[in-house]
């Protein structure tokens, strides 16, 4: 068998609300949704999912600014969107076959005018229309941007998505696998959430609490579509460290929780309830068997 080259890159998913971006991503990524914090920081965008096969890895990112109205906030978002677009390798612009092109699309198209990377027009929900109608639907968009290709799909039924993925993979540069496949698990968020809490502990307590801190995320429960309840233990070696982390009247722990929650909400795009406890486990660092349990995998 020949040694195939590995293709990888970052792909932005753009489109008006309800055109089926999440459905498409879920279909593509399936169970393998992974959310990593380090890239979220460099792109200032939410990683929505990572698609990994033997010969490719595609990191899908959200571009929150594109559909926002023109406000001060919108301007800010716009700047981060544009800087994020500079880092991506391709754009999937998703429209719905059962909706007419609207002002939201004009806004997006306008933003994509200066984008140099290949843009694919993904016409979703083709299961809702007769094939005869497709040319008219596509006609509303096809000259608006120099699309690399126009791909009709049904994210709900999975129609033609393989075609889209194959094309996309070929378009992406030869590159590394950015994320190990084994970080993709039932709870891919777990490790990242622990890292975010740990980061706040270090930021806020400085050298008072050295590296003898482990974070144990004990539960992540999605209550409904938009709310996630997270419980975590902050594990230290000595009672004095516990005191520092809790702080006067619990103020330090409260601050750690607030800041970590903000980051986690940004990461997940959901409302988060974060409950933190501090536990003393003397000498946990020496007990190497416990390290993995406490999520300390450096
Ligand atoms: P998003 O706002 O762009 O992320 O859109 P969603 O993925 O949340 O989808 C919005 C609605 O469209 C949901 O009710 C989906 O079930 C539905 N939807 C998404 N893709 C398709 C499709 O291919 N066909 C049909 N019939 N409905 C779809
Ligand atoms: K939605
Ligand atoms: Mg969505």
Automatic annotation (TrEMBL):
Top-rank taxon, per record:
Bacteria
Give me any GO biological process, just one: ribosomal small subunit assembly
In this protein, which residues make up the domain named KH type-2?
Answer: 205-282
Q: Which SUPFAM superfamilies match?
A: P-loop containing nucleoside triphosphate hydrolases, Prokaryotic type KH domain (KH-domain type II)
Its localization reads: Cytoplasm; Cell membrane
The UniProt annotation puts the region (G5) at: 153-155
Residues binding GTP are: 15-22, 62-66, 124-127
Query: Which keywords, in A-to-Z order, does the entry hold?
Result: Cell membrane, Cytoplasm, GTP-binding, Membrane, Nucleotide-binding, Ribosome biogenesis, RNA-binding, rRNA-binding
Region G3, as annotated, extends over 62-65
Query: Which portions of the sequence form the region G1?
Result: 15-22
Known Gene3D superfamilies for this protein? 3.30.300.20, P-loop containing nucleotide triphosphate hydrolases (3.40.50.300)
| Residues in Era-type G domain copies | 7-174
List, in alphabetical order, the Gene Ontology terms for molecular function in this entry.
GTP binding; GTPase activity; ribosomal small subunit binding; small ribosomal subunit rRNA binding
Q: Which GO terms describe its cellular component?
A: cytosol; plasma membrane
Q: Which Pfam families match?
A: KH_2, MMR_HSR1
Show the segment(s) annotated as G4: 124-127
Give the region (G2) as residue ranges: 41-45
- Keyword rRNA-binding on this protein? yes
Membrane topology term reads:
Peripheral membrane protein
Stated role: An essential GTPase that binds both GDP and GTP, with rapid nucleotide exchange. Plays a role in 16S rRNA processing and 30S ribosomal subunit biogenesis and possibly also in cell cycle regulation and energy metabolism.
Give the record's family classification.
Answer: Belongs to the TRAFAC class TrmE-Era-EngA-EngB-Septin-like GTPase superfamily. Era GTPase family.
NCBIfam families annotated for this entry? era (TIGR00436), PRK00089.1 (NF000908), small_GTP (TIGR00231)
Q: Outline the subunit composition.
A: Monomer.
In Swiss-Prot or TrEMBL terms, this protein is called GTPase Era
Its source organism is: Limosilactobacillus coleohominis 101-4-CHN
Designated gene of the protein: era
């Amino acid at each position: 068998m020949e040694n195939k080259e590995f293709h990888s890159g970052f792909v932005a998913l753009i489109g008006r609300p309800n055109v089926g971006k999440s459905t498409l991503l879920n279909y593509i990524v399936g169970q393998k949704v992974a959310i990593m914090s380090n890239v979220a920081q460099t792109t200032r965008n939410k990683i929505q999912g990572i698609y990994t096969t033997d010969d490719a890895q595609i990191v899908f990112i959200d571009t929150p600014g594109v559909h926002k109205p023109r406000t001060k906030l919108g301007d800010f978002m716009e700047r981060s969107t544009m800087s994020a677009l500079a880092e991506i390798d391709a754009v999937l612009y998703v429209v719905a076959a059962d909706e007419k092109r609207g002002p939201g699309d004009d806004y997006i198209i306008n933003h994509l005018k200066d984008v140099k990377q290949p843009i694919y027009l993904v016409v979703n929900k083709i299961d809702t229309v007769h094939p005869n109608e497709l040319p008219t639907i596509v006609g509303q968009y096809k000259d608006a941007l120099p699309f690399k290709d126009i791909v009709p799909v049904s994210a709900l039924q999975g129609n033609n998505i393989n075609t889209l993925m194959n094309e996309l993979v070929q378009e992406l540069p030869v590159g590394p696998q950015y994320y190990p496949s084994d970080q993709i698990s039932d709870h891919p968020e777990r490790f990242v959430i622990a890292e975010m809490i740990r980061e706040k502990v270090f930021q806020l307590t400085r050298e008072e609490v050295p590296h003898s801190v482990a974070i144990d995320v004990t539960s992540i429960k999605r209550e409904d579509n938009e709310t996630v309840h997270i419980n975590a233990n902050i594990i230290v070696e000595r009672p004095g460290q516990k005191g520092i982390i809790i702080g006067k009247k619990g103020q330090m722990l409260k601050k750690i929780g607030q800041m970590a929650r903000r980051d986690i909400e940004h990461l997940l795009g959901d409302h988060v309830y974060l409950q933190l406890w501090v536990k003393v486990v003397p000498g946990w660092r020496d007990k190497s068997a416990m390290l993995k349990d406490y999520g300390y995998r450096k």
